[in-house]
Task: inverse folding
């Protein structure tokens, strides 16, 4: 059974469009858990374009919600994270002008800072994951940096599948990375751009423990509701 992390950033996007309180990401987190989510993911971006500091505070204060916080490898954000003590942290690259997280971390350029952050998180007993492109070299670097988990950026394979293009070589690359990481004792997660079809294909890979899915779940919920959408993903994860 693959665990399903539901990313609720876009509930905050809808709320912020009106500058008022509705829909409330905290309520969405509770409801998503009730519908079968295994954890809730939020990304506190440097520009606070969706999730705000008060959302993090409110969601993390409810200890019944297993919280996965996505954040840039940034010391200011780290300080905020430590104050709120999420259960898990996923370090992601962040660019101001991107629409969404465009690729995995550059572990060569940022290794000293990332190592320092992982050290702090380990000391605080927060499970750390690194969002990386499907590359065995990055898995090796993640191991050297002491990360507990990696999350494979599935944006490329998701796009290929959506556009009905040849995706098998990207899939082979992902399978190789999953095996390599598992052999090194690293837990593997996957996320970005996933829909039912991508999830079905990736769920066949042995060794992936968690999916983190956001945009498609919130979008599909407009038509079928969060409950039904999470239920379909849970049946794929089984
Ligand atoms: N995992 C990570 C690390 C991400 O940065 C994102 C996007 O915020 C997701 C998963 C979810 O991606 P999507 O919203 O495309 O499902």
Result:
């Amino acid at each position: 059974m693959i665990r399903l992390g539901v990313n609720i950033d876009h509930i905050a996007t809808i709320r912020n469009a009106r500058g008022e309180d509705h829909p409330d990401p905290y309520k969405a987190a509770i409801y998503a858990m009730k519908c079968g989510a295994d954890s809730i993911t939020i990304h506190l971006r440097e520009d606070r374009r969706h999730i705000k500091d008060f959302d993090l505070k409110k969601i993390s204060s409810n200890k019944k919600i297993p919280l996965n916080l996505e954040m840039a490898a940034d010391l200011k954000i780290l300080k905020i994270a430590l104050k709120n003590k999420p259960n898990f942290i996923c370090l992601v690259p962040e660019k101001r002008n991107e629409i969404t997280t465009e690729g995995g971390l550059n572990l060569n350029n940022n290794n000293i800072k990332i190592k320092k952050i992982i050290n702090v998180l380990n000391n605080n007993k927060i499970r750390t994951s690194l969002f990386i492109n499907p590359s065995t070299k990055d898995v090796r670097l993640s191991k050297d940096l002491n990360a507990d988990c990696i999350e494979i950026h599935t944006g490329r394979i998701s796009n290929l599948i959506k556009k009905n293009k040849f995706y098998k070589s990207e899939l082979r690359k992902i399978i190789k990375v999953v095996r390599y990481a598992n052999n090194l004792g690293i837990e593997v997660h996957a996320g970005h751009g996933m829909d039912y079809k991508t999830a079905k294909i990736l769920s066949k890979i042995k060794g992936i423990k968690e999916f983190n899915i956001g945009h498609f779940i919130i979008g599909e919920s407009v038509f079928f509701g969060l409950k039904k959408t999470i239920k379909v993903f849970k049946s794929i994860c089984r």
Observations:
- Residues 7, 9, 43, 70, 90, 92, 100-101, 131, 151, 191-194, 212-216 surround pyridoxine-5'-phosphate (CB under 6 Å).
- The beta strands are 3-7, 39-43, 67-72, 88-92, 127-132, 149-153, 187-191, 208-213.
- The mean pLDDT is 96.
